[in-house]
Write a structure and sequence with these properties.
four-stranded mixed beta sheet; alpha/beta; binds 4'-deoxy-4'-aminopyridoxal-5'-phosphate; about 400 residues; globular; Aspartate Aminotransferase, domain 2
Length: about 400
Amino acid sequence: MVDSLLARRRESLSPSYRLFYDDPLRPVRGEGVYLFEANGKACLDAYNNVVPAGHCHPRIVAAVAEQSAKLNTHTRYLHQTILDYADALLATFPVGLNRATFTCTGSEANDLAIRLARYVTGGTGIIVTENAYHGVSAATADISPSLGEAAPLGSHVRTVPAPTPGVDFTVGVDSAIKDLQRHGIKPALLVVDTIFSSDGVFADPPGFLAPAVETIHKAGGLFLADEVQPGFGRTGHTMWGFSRHGLVPDMVSLGKPMGNGYPAAGLVTQSHIIDEFGKNIRYFNTFGGNPVAMAAALETLRVIQDEKLMDNASTTGVYLMAELRARPSIQAVRGAGLFIGAELTDGALAARVVNNMRARGVLISSAGPAGNVLKIRPPLIFNREHADILLTALDGALADG
Ligand code: PMP
């Protein structure tokens, strides 16, 4: 069956699609932190951050089903749920971040942020990290060096080294600004994923981002916190990755976990950034912010809050990181909450470990420019017992080398 599905994919899908694992996964059902394959095998999911509340959370499934059965339209009609959600969402942000625009994907949210930055600053220059990923649209692929050399960066884009130990992130941002200016390009935007996931997960020390944001502001540019990966409680104790850095972004993009799997994403901005743009330019996203998406997002947010998933992310994350640090074959362990990077000596070893763990029924992946960082990002309901299952599989996989 797997072979015939593989053959059909090759026949009819774009070759741009990539599958995970040498032995591709074919899940047919999900529940909590588990995915079940067609043959009934259960896999512990330590990778899918799109379902913070776990796969098929009954409250969220019910909210989607109920709203789907009642009405699904768009943002050109009045509807209460979008307002209830906007209020609940904005209440999780620092004062000042007080306007929400809803989209279907993180790419669309970042795309809108780029348009806003250009509109507000009159500039075009954009600064990103060396292995950043910010989306699939033309404008966001232009600022996504992790897509590789075949996907050229825009001539208005400059990259800066990720904040690896010993690298002063602000110095990189400063020289990127100067380089843009030397080429006659006015800086418009600094954008970072606040957990630096595709760069290899860099979380510490908290606060290191703040001076870089000051630097882009002084140069007349804006700061966009891309919270598509770390947002909605993943970093533990706090809802947003940027909060660990003691700063207030001009714009914040949201996605992946927002609807617990239902397509929901958006951009939260300070009103002075978007109000003029909004008066002059219409924004209508056919599916973004529709009543079903908003029902999914509202229930997801309530579950994150009711089930205290931020606290769980913090407690389980602290335990898991301490256990990983005790393994001598792991070079470094970085992260916050349940976003964890465990660095191995090389990318080939990391690939073998990821595949070996998949064979043992535990799903993780790898990240970083060399692919040598194990990326561990489970649903936020992941507890100590699940962490122990992961660690046993990891020990086996590391021993097999
Ligand atoms: N920003 C970051 C940091 C991401 O990881 C992603 C998705 N991997 C995106 C933006 C784009 O989100 P989407 O796939 O929903 O367009």
